[in-house]
TrEMBL record:
Membrane topology reported for the UniProt record: Single-pass type II membrane protein
PANTHER family: HEPARAN SULFATE 6-O-SULFOTRANSFERASE 3, HEPARAN-SULFATE 6-O-SULFOTRANSFERASE
EC number, as in UniProt: 2.8.2.-
Name of the coding gene: EOG090X0E58
Protein name: Heparan-sulfate 6-O-sulfotransferase
Keyword tags: Glycoprotein, Membrane, Signal-anchor, Transferase, Transmembrane, Transmembrane helix
Residue stretches spanning the membrane: none
Length: 401
């Protein structure tokens, strides 16, 4: 009898230890410290390699190291995308099958840049921009409907209002086939503009405060539209919202907008559970690495705070010049808006955009790296740079020589 009692106690002890172990492991997994990639629901479109399951500190932070490890998320996008080096070496052929695709992120200065693209490029056959019409016809020479530019001011929002990387890569080929009435393979030169995250976030806040919503955006991802995402406001818009209320909405898409719009959202389950805390650290890590990877793979990107450098890089990469220079916007309004905030509010804005802050730092390094490369390769750097920063002086200098 005593033997049976001892055996029952032993078995009971084993069960108790097992249950405690399961509870402990579950706690760790809930906090993203143990992951099972083969069963993960975070990446339905890609099979993430082993490098993607490393800790956040192991994510390449420098531009060069990230470009070397570009295979971390193997792309399965079925379009031909041209990267920076190839764009510079081969150039942009407006007469062939090349298309510039502008990924326009809200409140980054993209509206001004978009107008530069359709109105200010020195082309033999410039875009036709009829008066009293928002869009221009940017057709290839000797064609009547073949577009070389896919943007708000040429084709319109064919892939949705402010379509992001996930939407554009999935949609652009079919949208152009439908527009042109024929199916063909093209080479796509993706471009975008980024901005200081705090200034961009406050600019979006002011825009929303005045009544903007972007509620018609499709948020296409993984073969479906996510049009029923929760709104932070009741009624038709959020007019008059205060900053604290704006920041307190956990599913506000303004938070880390630049990272989200540049990342492949299918790697992180699209918008499923977007405003939940489950696996949030892992989701953030995936989105940030994907955004860096996609930015490094783009043919061109510019920074709102570095207009001259951005213009020079565009012109030398595409071998196309702008008739009018990019204007460096006065930062007085942004500085004034920040000056009105409390230190706690500024810190909160910074925290809410921590991914964008890291992305911008990466972008700034990469921009300067590209600038140095192009400068070394440019035998007429002084003349070309002078024309960008002092266009009128450059014209006078050219006339006297």
């Amino acid at each position: 009898m005593k033997r049976w009692v001892k055996m029952i106690r032993f078995i009971g002890g084993l069960c108790l230890v097992t249950l405690l172990g399961i509870a402990y492991v579950s706690y760790l997994c809930h906090n993203s410290l143990c992951l099972a990639p083969e069963h993960s629901s975070l990446s339905p479109r890609y099979s993430v390699s082993s490098s993607s399951s490393s800790s956040k500190s192991e994510i390449p932070s420098s531009p060069a190291s990230l470009v070397k490890q570009i295979g971390g998320f193997p792309s399965k996008v079925n379009i031909e995308s041209v990267a920076f080096e190839e764009a510079y070496d081969m150039g942009f052929d407006i007469t062939s099958r090349d298309v510039i695709v502008f990924l326009h992120i809200q409140k980054t200065g993209g509206t001004t840049f978009g107008r530069h693209l359709v109105r200010d490029l020195n082309l033999e056959n410039p875009c036709n921009c009829p008066r009293k019409r928002k869009r221009c016809d940017c057709f290839r020479p000797n064609t009547v409907n073949e577009q070389w530019l896919f943007s708000r001011y040429s084709t319109g929002w064919k892939c949705g209002l402010h379509a992001d990387w996930t939407e554009l890569t999935d949609c652009v080929e079919g949208a152009l086939d439908e527009y042109e009435g024929t199916s063909r393979k093209r080479r796509y030169f993706f471009i975008t503009v980024l901005r200081d995250p705090i200034h961009r976030y406050l600019s979006e806040f002011r825009h929303v405060q005045r009544g903007a919503t972007w509620k018609s955006a499709r948020h296409w991802c993984g073969g479906q539209e996510f049009t029923s995402l929760p709104h932070c406001y009741k009624g038709s818009n959020w007019t008059g919202v205060e900053l604290d209320e704006f920041m307190n909405c956990s599913y506000n898409l303004a938070h880390n907008r630049q990272t989200r719009m540049l990342a492949d959202l299918t790697l992180a389950g699209c918008y499923t559970g977007y405003n939940t805390t489950a696996d949030q650290l892992e989701r953030d890590r995936i989105l940030l690495q994907s955004a860096k990877q996609n930015l490094a793979s783009m043919a061109y990107f510019g920074l709102t705070e570095e207009q001259a450098t951005s213009q020079y890089i565009f012109e030398r990469t595409f071998h196309l010049d702008f008739a009018n220079p990019f204007d460096q916007a006065n930062a007085t309004l942004s500085a004034q808006a920040i000056a009105e905030l409390t230190p706690a509010q500024i810190e909160r804005v910074r925290q809410l955009n921590s991914l964008d802050n890291e992305l911008l730092e990466f972008a700034r390094q990469l921009l300067h790296e590209r600038f140095k490369k192009l400068k070394r390769r440019d035998p007429h750097f002084r003349r070309n740079w002078l024309r960008v920063i002092h266009p009128h002086k450059s014209e006078r200098t050219t006339e006297t020589h």
